[in-house]
Amino acid sequence: MTIVVATVVLVGFTGTPTGPHLSQALEPDLPKIPSSSPLAPSSTPSASATSTPLSPYDTLVLSHSPVAYWPISSGGGVVADVSGRGHHATRMSEQTTNTFAPNGDKVMKFDGVDDYLSIPSSSDFSIATTGNLTWEGWIRPSTLQFPHASSGDYVAWMGKCRDYAPSCEWEARMYSASNPQGRCSRLSAYAFNPNAGLGSGASWQPTCSLDLAGRWLHVVATYTTKSTPSSCSSAYPGQINIWVNGIPWNADIHRPTGCMSQYSIVPVAGSSPLLIGTMSRSNWFAGAIGKVAIYNRLLTQTEIRSHYKAMTEQNPVGSCGNTCTLC
Length: 327
Description:
Number of domains: 1
Helix content: under 10%
């Protein structure tokens, strides 16, 4: 039996987060898994799965040993984790539609109203488990002014912090083009203490003239508590970094942003489920999402760039200073 995997490409931003305030998190969708794959049936919701063959992009991602990988290629009630670790997602909306990633793989469109996927909590999704965590995904926002955004005009397109305290961990965020903080279309990766509150983060802030609506963005974030830049306080060890379409943010320009010490963050593994399409079910990403993977190690820049090239057949082109550009 063959597995079908869908790929989504994300186009990105750079920026410097100054700490979001949190208050509330989600569940995903499955293709058929070969009988040789040791997926745990106990965590799989009862729903029919659609079988799709793995693409070269999927094969490359799996060769880098993710602890979870959701191509998000089917429209059924269960979205498969094809990593073999059994972290299947449940689709929490009644209707879904599909679109296509840059390589032609099917991925899912989220309506920005109530579409999301939910995956049961696992230590595989926590920074504290190994001291290292990477997440990646391909996103394509359908608008740059999200209709169901937070009061700060941002949405979480993924996160492990559904109910905020006492089990908050991390968030993948995108800001609307117009927002009170002036963070036009910023893409951010945040880490939180269990009780939520202000989070330390890394931000890919695009130039405000860069139109990201309808553009595929490959967003990758890494978290570590095992190394601390000299420009960060070692009292709260660790750092966060972010890439969009293979282009890394310029961390040195934005310190203390990107330091765990910015808001005294000590990551703790919690019980929140992982949600895709939202984080707390209080704001909602509108657009396509696919090819979401999580690793219990730090992806290298070479690996990140290889994923972008495998999806687009192009080398990453762009740069980041105070703001970022893409070509």
